[in-house]
What we know:
The structure holds 2 protein chains of 2 kinds. In chain A, strands 2-3-4-5-6 form a 5-stranded mixed beta sheet, sandwiched between helices. In chain A, strand 3 and strand 4 (165-171) form a beta hairpin. In chain A, 45% of the residues lie in helices and 14% in strands. Chain A has 10 helices and 6 strands. Chain B is of the alpha+beta class. Chain B contains 6 helices and 3 strands; from the N terminus they run ββααααααβ. Chain B has a two-stranded antiparallel sheet. Chain B is elongated and about 75 Å long. Chains A and B meet through helix 2, strand 1, helix 3, helix 4 and strand 2 of A and helix 3, helix 6 and strand 3 of B. Strand 1 of chain A pairs parallel with strand 3 of chain B, so a sheet runs across the interface.
Amino acid sequence: MIATITDPPSGTGRIRRTSSLPQHISPSAAKSYLGCSLKFYFERVACIRKNTPVALHLGKAVHAALQVFHIARWRGGDDSPDAIAAAYEKSFTDLEAEEGPVNFDDEGREKARLDGLRVVAAYLDSPEAMKEKPRAVEVLLKEHIPGLSVPLTGAMDLVEGNFTPVDFKSAATKPDPSNAAFDHEIQLVSYQLLMEIATGQVPPSLDLVFLVKTKTPQIIRVTSPPADLHRKRRVIALLETAVQGIAAHRYHPQPGMQCSWCQYKNECMAWLPAQTQPERRATG
Amino acid sequence: MAIKMISNYSKKLGLPGFSSHQFSVSVETELVTTADIPAETERLYRLLQTNVDQQIETVGFVPPYDYGMEPAAEAGAANPAPNGSASGSASASALAAVIAAAIASANNQGNANPAPNGNDANGNDASGGNNGNGANWQRGPAWKCSDKQRDLILKLVEEHQLDKAGVESLAIERFGKGVRLLNKIEASGLIDELLDTHGNGNSNSQGSTRRRNGSAYNGANGANGANGRRAA
């Protein structure tokens, strides 16, 4: 069965509707919208829930465990591997209960659970594991950025002592360092924009730490320099493009390779522009 | 006959951890006539004040909460290290240790400035509230965090009757600076910890480690509710 939506996402942005700006824009929402505006609609506007993909479930549980580790480091709490493993197990179970079923296949749950545990252990054992006190953990920021119609929000996984924002990415394969910063440009530069306003200083670098779920998990840090004015303007323009698209109800399919694994194929196939503009009807 | 005019501008500001710093600048000038005094006074006052203000913004060394004490032994004996305990209680223990140390520090200075409310034998505030020994957040440099964060910190302190000196010491322990000097990121961390320790489980950290995609975008299409729907 396909969920019914009272106001179908059939807009192409050409239809005159009351424009309503979103309350704010986050880097992940902007990336999602720019990737496929119709998928964004199904996920974040219509809120059609689907079973959680295993990789997403695993990533969230690993993130939660790392967060507990960093907070313990920060506040002098229990950061022993046993405590962090327990936090991971709890999160893995709680997430299933709170966010709905996960797409596990037979025996997939146990494999996923152990994969995540190995990744957490690899991080704790790696040189990347936080040795000093962090500056902040899982910090939510919301700031007005010149050039953006709505506030920018962002949740940073970790801010190191020297104000370097760090984002953790769980990945199935080793990242290509030369592309990683570009792939995550919206997120990294958004963090820089938020940090600059929140602290008044430019972060020394923008870092990604990849938690690679290979048989022997690998922890790989990719460091990129802070964005110059051009990159910042480029990212602000991308964010604003998403804001204006959302405000104009511009949601339409964007066919591409990503459709192969999209969970909203059925809903997407039902899509049609609801109306055409009056002037087009008149001339057409 | 030349007239000698001596001008001095001095400023003393409070700092976290019961400390303060002071800076003054003096100059000597010669005037031709006493009629020049008003204009010269105005000029020098502005000049000296501007320069003193510029320099005094540099805070320099601020003593930590246990400065001059034997903190490790004392605090450790009274409040065992939280290792091995659950994260939530570890936070509470750490906070309690910091607050206890701050109160002890305040009591050490109590000979010079007796506390108006008095403390009990354990160094606890007998009134249960701020006893005047705490950090004075009414004075000092401007708050660096957002207005909302400042209001939330003050609200937490008031609602839970927290000792300001304890919160001040916690900020110094975590960030190396007092509450008023915390930027937005640091203030966010302090608020999280205060909520974890004293709040009702609304914090975004230990209590609930997960983010959720908000419904900030539902408003962009008014006909659709925020409730999640499941497609079979």
